[in-house]
Amino acid sequence: MYRFLLRPKWILFHLVVLVSSVGMLGLARWQWDRHIERDAFVAKVEQREQAEAVELTLVLGKTPVSEIEYSRVTASGHYLADQQFVEILQTVDGTNGENVLTPFQIDGGPILIVNRGFVADGQPVPAPPSGTLIVGGLARTTQIRQTGQLTDNSDGGKLDEVRRIDLDLIAKRMGSPVAPIYIDLIKTVPPSATPPDPTGLPDLSGGPPHVSYTIQWCIFSVCVVVGWVFAIRRSKRTRQREADKAEKAEKAATAAAAAAAAEPVSAERPMQPSA
Predict the structure, then answer these.
(1) 119, 60: one domain
(2) Which one of 19, 196, 224, 274 is separated from 57 by 20 to 30 angstroms, measured CA to CA?
(3) Whether 137 and 223 share a structural domain
């Protein structure tokens, strides 16, 4: 009864089901791996955020940039107020504005780009404090242009605004080397009289719902297998009904033929002779 499953079109159907089911399980595993990786990343960031701040000049050039990112760092020096610029097209809590980026000359070290915070559109950009001071913040690595995003002008000239904190591009526009990281400012000693709104710590509570995607791909895989079973059972029932119908028709035809053969042939009455 199940020999029809070995026909070419059914074999092709089996292969499609197998490839689809295994592929969906592979996607489920991939999503789960992304979930594990994100959990490890969040744990690493939280650990670095809670650690004691370190002097930036003690780790630059000695520790890989990837291991400095999200750490609390401090630096002593002074702002280069005449080279301040902004990162445009920023949004905070539904308000459009820009981040204030000020180069900071570290004493005995490189120039550090400091993201001093957010200023809403239409508000004046506050000048940085003057004199020697200590800045502390969260170390971040250079931002990279994503597919579809606009490119900042890499030509020379005065640096007024950028679309992202691309440190290589900023160094080229400034004409001076800068540190391979920038900081999101948390605190200044002494404090600034009119600081921008600080960007704060990164919010890692969101992110892609990898667990939900994992469950969905598993469900899709199960649905494919269930549909395969349903298709086989339905085809079997259809073939069974057709076989039963053919068998009944054959029996009816046989019975009719037997009845016709058993019926006696009536003899013709002889004709009377005419007078």
Answers:
(1) yes
(2) 196
(3) no
User: Do 56 and 43 fall into the same domain?
Assistant: no
CA 154 – CA 4 distance, rounded (Å): 67
As a whole number, mean pLDDT of residues 57-83 equals: 89
Say yes or no to pLDDT of 239 above 80: no
Give which of 46, 69, 43, 41 is closest to 56, Cα–Cα: 69
Closest-CA residue to 114 (of 68, 66, 157, 78): 78
Q: What share of the chain is helix, strand, coil (3-state, %, to 5)?
A: 45, 25, 35
- Residues making up the chain, counted from first to last: 275
Distance CA 199, CA 135 (A): 14
Is the pLDDT at 143 greater than 90? The verdict is no
Determine the residue type at 112.
L
Cβ neighbours around 50 below 10 Å, total: 8
Nearest to 137 by CA among 73, 200, 201, 196: 73
Domain count, the chain: 2
Residue 201 lies in a domain: no
Q: Is the pLDDT of residue 67 over 70?
A: yes
pLDDT band at 65 (very low <50, low <70, confident <90, very high): confident
Maximum pairwise Cα distance, the chain: 158
Cα–Cα separations (whole angstroms), residue 195 to 5, 115, 141, 191, 192: 75, 11, 23, 8, 5
Range of the domain at 231: 21-50+209-237
